[in-house]
């Protein structure tokens, strides 16, 4: 397996920087990549994280997962990018510093586009286009906290749903991708695709061990599901709720501190139920009650930081489709 100048023979691991483009100043734009090439033939799984420069938790655990893996025990190939947006990471920016674009809102990129579009295109063609499955790991940065798997309503939804369930997170959410992500492009190309939303908000401080453990499990469980690795699925839940998203709640015109009821996550709520409120930062007055527009299950996602960005997800509500036992 060779991607750029990174090459791993059967039964070997390799690590390096995949050059995916150059800036106007001719500085190289790189994506760090690990390749774990199994001793036996099998499928190819791409695991990627850190499309936002602030989504740093996966980079704490994914290289450790690579160290844990023995290529002699693996069938197929794992391609792993622990932190894609290196410029955003360096300058604490969600988007690429090169051109102010979000790497995960460019589809499969553009060979003739801006530096970020070129970077995504080169990476997509070299890694994702030749893979059988994609696991995209996202977090909520400092604004929100997540613990669910997402499936796009594109391509082979059944294969993607099965992969998402196998990750072992408490919920799998079926819904539309509103951002033209790499995951959506891969799903449309027929790949099995799951997006694991894990961590963010207070997670790096308060729930670090649990979140990093869930990320580790997600990678290993994906490999087990695809037949790349032996062993039983690992999870901290006994069953997975499959939910069809119907409502995403984001901030309205009211400004202030936003406080959401974290205890409602995973719970059934009725239409009109209070999910949170907005409080004036200077007078303490409650400006708005944030309510469920219709009956549904509250997804394990939403704002944790009280001053969220305009498009931050405050809560997601959906309809229960089925309950699936882990394993």
**Structural class estimated from helices and strands:** alpha/beta
Task: Output the number of helix runs.
Answer: 7
Number of strand segments:
18
Radius of gyration, taken over Cα atoms and rounded to an integer in Å: 20 Å
- Ends distance: 31 Å
- Give the topology string: H per helix, E per strand: EEEEEHEHHEEHEHEHHEEEEEEEE
Percentage of β-strand residues = 35-45%
Runs with pLDDT <50, length 5+? Answer: none
Largest sheet features:
13 strands, mixed
Helix content: 10-25%
Mean pLDDT: 95
Mass-distribution shape:
globular
Model description:
There is one protein chain. The protein is an alpha/beta fold and 327 residues long. 21% of the residues lie in helices and 35% in strands. It has helices at residues 57-68, 86-90, 115-128, 157-166, 182-188, 203-206, 208-225, and strands spanning 2-3, 6-7, 12-22, 28-37, 40-49, 75-81, 133-138, 144-152, 171-175, 192-199, 239-249, 257-260, 268-269, 274-279, 286-291, 296-298, 301-303, 315-325. Helix 1 packs across helix 7 (208-225) and helix 4 (157-166) packs across helix 7. It is globular, with a radius of gyration of 20 Å. It starts with a strand and ends with a strand.
Describe this protein with a few key phrases.
327 residues; 3-stranded antiparallel β-sheet; 13-stranded mixed β-sheet; single chain; alpha/beta
